[in-house]
Amino acid sequence: MRWLSDQGLRNLLRVAADPDFGGTKYRLLDEISRGGMGTVYRAVDTELERQIAIKVLNGPEAGEDIARRMVREAQIIARLEHPGIVPVHDVGLLPDGRVFYAMKLVRGGRLDQYASADVSLKDRLRKFQAACEAVAFAHSHGVIHRDLKPQNIMIGSFGEVLVLDWGVAKVMPTHSTQADSEADTLLLAANGNTGDELQDTAQGTIIGTPVYMSPEQARGEIEGLDERSDVYSLGAILYFLFTGKSPRLTDEARLQIRPRELNSKVTKPAEAVCLKALAQSREDRYANARELAADIAHLIDDEPVSAYRENTVERVGRWLGKNRFLVLLVLTYLLIRVFFIFTARR
Amino acid sequence: MEQDTDIGGQENRFPETRHSAIVAARSEDVQVRQRAFEAIVASYWKPAYKYIRIKWKASNEDAKDLTQGFFTTAIEKRYFDSYDSTIASFQTFIRTCLDRFVANQRKSQQRLKRGGSSEHFSLDFSEAEGELLLQPRADELTPEDYFHREWVRNLFSQSVERLQQHYKEKGSEVYFNLFERYDLQADGQDHSVDKVSYASLAREFGVSTMDVTNYLAAARRDFRKLVLNNLRELTGGEDEFRREARALLGVEIK
Predict the structure, then answer these.
(1) ipTM given for this complex
(2) What is the CATH number of domain A9-116+169-195?
(3) Which terminal Cβ of chain A has fewer Cβ within 10 Å, N or C?
């Protein structure tokens, strides 16, 4: 009988455990990434003859709650039609019983990879602003992401910014009607059930990624989470973009090192924006991602930001810096005038 | 578009879905029982032999005798009749029986002489011994985990053989050859190291990249079906089969 090495056996186990796309229009190519809930594969849509990405639930043993979450993720993304959010094309069940959804295949790199390159602070801010706008759009539709981190933000090959992985997103109570009931219907079909109530993420459950997670989320206060929890995560991402490190907190939940201590190029207003987003008390943060995005736009344009009160010297300095060309022009004009006055007197 | 092959599907050239050999081992029909025993022995003798060598630190000669003796006694004394799939998996059951058998043998110092029993199986122990040398047990694996891994290895090896046979009979060897080249990786290398791509395979086999995609997808699907088919044969009932399929492949059998 054929001898299988350990590596050969691992390959075959992976192949055999790969999702079965038989009877669908998709052909599996390879694995892109694997997460706790699902695995993303590169696949071919054989009808349209184009490559797509398909997220497939890791296995039915993952549990009903996880499957339900994945269907909800697909439905939430489908509702959020925004250039910063990857469009979903299809959702359904594979012949092997696993939930999947198909989406656009994004070619590019993750924000953390982008930030490790030699990119100016302004360019980083522009990408960050685009991410904030995508999250702000979700907030305006009553959706909070709950797992924002550099690894979940992609920079596409055209420079576009896409916020990914909405697997633990929450629809705010006033918005959660249609998607929830549709997710339940699909899952009940998947599990052969007829009507037991499915459980949402329980109070006290900690979901998300620790260093990018708001203090209230880290405490497991699922019920009370709102847009400001995402604002904290965005603040942590901004900290990462400024310093190349994720924020670390002291035992008293205070920031150990301020951004300017790690990167002197970070201006005081920029640091203030970051610290406001990272405020321990959510009342002290931006109310939502749109407010944060507005301050980021001001930073990019050298305008005053809501998070920082300038003194007169700073205001004049910023004005001079922003109007450098005009100031130089006036100074040159004045120097020429003085020169002519002196030469005329002689 | 290229038609996928379908094991047990429309063309139905592949043998029908296998039934549980564990159930068949209790049959009153001698021939049915004999075939069932052969299937069980074929799937378990290598894991059993290696397990005895590792856990019981038996010499290869002792391990040969104990393996032969175990299966012979199990069949003669109809060990498998007492198996209850609601208590444990068949794999756990057979390992427990094996442990008990070896312990008893050691206790009574009765060394089974090869060929001394009424039943004798033709088992290639030199092959199993060679495999032991090629792939020694990793320290972090318990003997029980090692037994499970060797059982999975055997199950997959059988499935690969059957897949090859299936495509040979259909005259579609290219499916298997691509599968072997890309997924089986005879040299034991990872793709990330080996850099085998669909495009390079397309050039190597003189087909289009889309053909490589389709052939590989079909071969993988057929392989998965064969693994499940073999698994069904080696489990005691539908519930155990589903549990094992879920544990092994993460698939839910409807």
Answers:
(1) 0.79
(2) 3.30.200.20
(3) C
